[in-house]
Amino acid sequence: MLHGGPGGCHDPLEGLGALAEQGRRVVLYDQLGSGESSRADDVELWTVETFIDQLESVRDGLGLDELHLFGSSWGGMLALEYAFTRPAGLGSLILNSTPTSAPHWAEEALRLHADLPPGLDEKQAEEEFKRRHIIRIDPEPEVLARARAKFGTQVYETMWGPNEFTVTGTLKGWDVIPRLREVDVPTLITSGRYDECTPRLVEPLHAGVAGSEWVLFEDSAHMAYLEETERYLQVVGGFLDRVEGFA
Q: Under a CB-based contact definition with an 8 Å cutoff, are residues 97 and 192 in contact?
């Protein structure tokens, strides 16, 4: 399981541990620079390559010769980058609300931001954006407050920027749309109807990854795994069963 951010932690994904009830091992970890992982004060570290190296280290350390790889938001970006390396033993990808182009994401985020009510200050605008396009549960799940307390601010600001709709970091020009045809494993794409990762952002991913499935969660924003947990587990569990030939 690859969490979002960059700079997030595994906590919001804990509910996906229920997939272990199907008999599979579910591995969650905090990426470098956030959560309970090491927090080196070195902006030079925060590159895609650093996080690919950590993923490979986790695989090696736990002996994960075969795996399905789940990534949410930034975690999905990392999952794609890892898939491009054509690692042995990768059985499938599950990509939740995953960008394929930071410039396109910035355009959509600014469009959504422009639709916010007038007269909001910066903090109010961020809160309203979150309520509309990141998680629609009110009050929000406790796990998100816990995750914010462990957020890796340096990682986020170095790689992304000051907020969701201002992309100024090292990922500013990141765009893998031309490379999506390189993904050659079964792929499930999930996103929410009200997601900051809008349908127009998901469409290139679905079109670019041959044979991919796309499930749109009608009552969710960016965190369908928290907003429609039961259905999310059913969708992902069913996909894994099909990939492994159990259904």
A: yes
What's at 145, amino acid-wise?
Answer: A
Options 34, 72, 73, 92, the catalytic residue: 73
Structure tokens at 105: 């994401």
Q: What radius of gyration do the chain's Cα atoms show?
A: 17
Answer yes or no: 195 catalytic. Answer: yes
Please enumerate in sequence order all residues whose Cβ is within 8 A of that of 175, keeping only pairs 6 or more positions apart, or say none: 100, 101, 102, 103, 104
Tens of pLDDT, residues 4-38: 999 999 999 999 999 999 999 999 999 999 999 99
Predicted confidence (pLDDT) per residue in 222-247, tens digit:
999 999 999 999 999 999 999 999 75
d(CA 218, CA 123): 27
Considering the segment(s) 11-243 as one domain, its CATH architecture is 3-Layer(aba) Sandwich (3.40)
Pair type for strands 90-96 and 67-72? parallel
196 contacts 133 by C-beta, under 8 angstroms: yes
E strands of the chain, at which residues? 67-72, 90-96, 187-192, 213-217
| Rounded CA separation 234/73 (Å) | 20
Is the preceding omega at residue 139 within 30 degrees of 0, hence cis?
yes
Question: Is 73 among the residues known to form the active site?
Answer: yes
The catalytic position among 97, 191, 195, 220 is 195
222 noted as active-site residue: yes
